[in-house]
Amino acid sequence: MQAPDFWYKPAGLLSALLWPVSKLWAALGARRLASREPLKVGVPVICVGNINIGGTGKTPTVIALAERLIRRGYTPHVVSRGHGGTEVGPLLVDPKKHKAARVGDEPLLISAFCPVWVSKRRDLGALEAEEAGADVILLDDGFQNPDLAKDFSIVVVDAVVGFGNRHVLPAGPLREPLAVGLARADLVLSIGPPTAQRGFAQVADLPAKLPHVTASLAPPETGMVWKDLKVLAFAGIGRPEKFFATLRGLGANVIQAEPLSDHQPLTEIIMQRLESDAFFKGAQMVTTEKDAVRVPEKYRLRVLTLPVRLAVSDWGLIDGKLDEIGLTAKG
């Protein structure tokens, strides 16, 4: 299911009609946050979350932070709910034997960079990670989860769409009232191109004391030549159009773009249809890294993957926050 268009337009009649349901959603969320005392573990916990529903760039942010912490001399482990998977956990993800249907696509992708624990109970996952040798925990999502105390919370937002019409579900795209969420945040990371960043800065209305860092997503240099390549692109991420735009920006000839629901299982029927379309149109199938881990084994060699990595404009503010919670660079 794709996000409805009215979420990202000025609030109108439909948002007004849904406002009472949004008030109930916000109240239930607030009650859940206050329902228990979060567990404080013995190592720093960095939460990478969002206030919007859907994809904002959390996974590339987690990967970038993991790499940053490793370079600073630490051993980060990631704790994830494993959205889209059946595993309750806590379970240490093994990419050699676990499938996305069990542990989720994001944990599988992140496990190539550092250890990842899938756990519906984030506190139990954090305890397992600490026992296994983690000296810092990256909480993938979980900004609205009360299980685990956070030392540093980063709210990630897509600069292109910002916070939408600023209404809570279902009247808008927010999981909780914006002011409530930003009050718990330690830093906002907006991801998008310069033009989108300028627009976001004009309308975001962030609290004056809340640090704001900009970043962008870009494909790493792999030697792959995309210019004029005829592709059939498919993506089951929060905003598939971002992926299609990236391909076009690389010069690829996107002759068919298939937006799928976020985390949608890639069944044999779907893959057979996509492969048939690609064959008759003389196109190469291409997808995202996150979708690639859900592609059935027999189709893996027939689908190209376009990875993206987070480029942070200035790590200074983030590094300063890491120093504040005791994660100063070693050596």
Provide tags for this entry.
331 residues; alpha/beta; Rossmann fold; 2 domains; 13 strands
Describe the structure.
The protein starts with 12 loop residues before the first helix and ends in a 7-residue tail after the last helix. It is globular and about 55 Å long. The protein has two domains: 45-217 and 318-324, Rossmann fold, CATH 3.40.50; 230-307. The strands form two sheets. A nine-stranded mixed sheet has the order 3-4-2-5-1-6-7-8-13, with helices on both faces. Strands 10-9-11-12 form a four-stranded parallel sheet, sandwiched between helices. The model has no long low-confidence stretch (mean pLDDT 93). Helices cover 33% and strands 20% of the residues. With 331 residues, it is an alpha/beta fold. The protein has helices at 13-33, 58-71, 100-103, 105-110, 122-131, 178-184, 194-203, 240-249, 268-281, 289-292, 316-324, and strands spanning 45-49, 76-80, 91-92, 116-118, 136-140, 152-158, 187-191, 212-218, 230-235, 253-259, 284-288, 303-306, 309-312.
Beta-strand fraction estimate: 15-25%
Write down the CATH class of the largest domain.
Answer: Alpha Beta
- Number of separate helices: 11
Mean pLDDT: 93
Strand order of the largest sheet: 3-4-2-5-1-6-7-8-13
CATH topology of the largest domain: Rossmann fold
Please identify, by name, the CATH architecture of the largest domain.
Answer: 3-Layer(aba) Sandwich
Unreliable segments of 5+ consecutive residues = none
The general outline is globular
Please report the distance between the alpha carbons of the first and last residues: 48 Å
Gyration radius, rounded: 20 Å
Which structural class fits the helix and strand makeup?
Answer: alpha/beta
Number of domains: 2
**What are the secondary-structure elements, in order, as H or E?**
HEHEEHHEHEEHEHEEHEHEHEEH
Largest sheet: 9 strands, mixed
Helix content: 25-40%
